[in-house]
Each structure stands twice: as structure tokens, then as C-alpha cells.
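Protein modeling request. Please complete all fields; requests missing the sequence field cannot be processed.
Requester role: graduate student
Desired output: 3D structure, C-alpha cell encoding
Chains: 1
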Amino acid sequence: MLKTRMIFLLSLSLASLSGCSDLTKQDTETKKAFCIVFGDKLPTRSSKDTEITRYEIQQLYAEYIDQCPEQAAEIPWLSQFVDTK
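Delivered output (85 residues):
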């Protein structure tokens, strides 16, 4: 389920941001709305997560930080889960 949700969110991300070299006000508002929804759907971690699940969650966090840096900056714990190497 996590993989399906991640694929959907990444597809939505690419679709909403493609071809946006000159962002209009509407595009900016759309991206902000996307980031709010994306942030609300970020999964939480659990001690029962498998290695694969931890990896997928880490990738989703990294994608959120990349696509929504302003909103991600408001979540102080988020960057500790992303490998920057």
C-alpha cells in the first residue's frame, strides 16, 4: 500500500510541476495545496517497519523535502530521517 501511495504522490508531483518554468499565481497556489496534502499524508515510522518499508518512507521524506522545501522546513524532525550522502 505504501508503494502504491508513493507512486501516486510522485506521479501527482510530476504532473503538477511539469512545464512550470514560469509559475503563475495559480500554479504557485496549486503547488502549495499539493504540498499541504502531501505533507498531511506522510507516513510515520514504527519499530515494526521492515527494512524495505523504512527505505520507502525515507525516499518519500526525501521527495517531500525536494518538492516542498518551505513546508518541509516547518517539520524539524523530518530531515533526520533522510540520508544526504
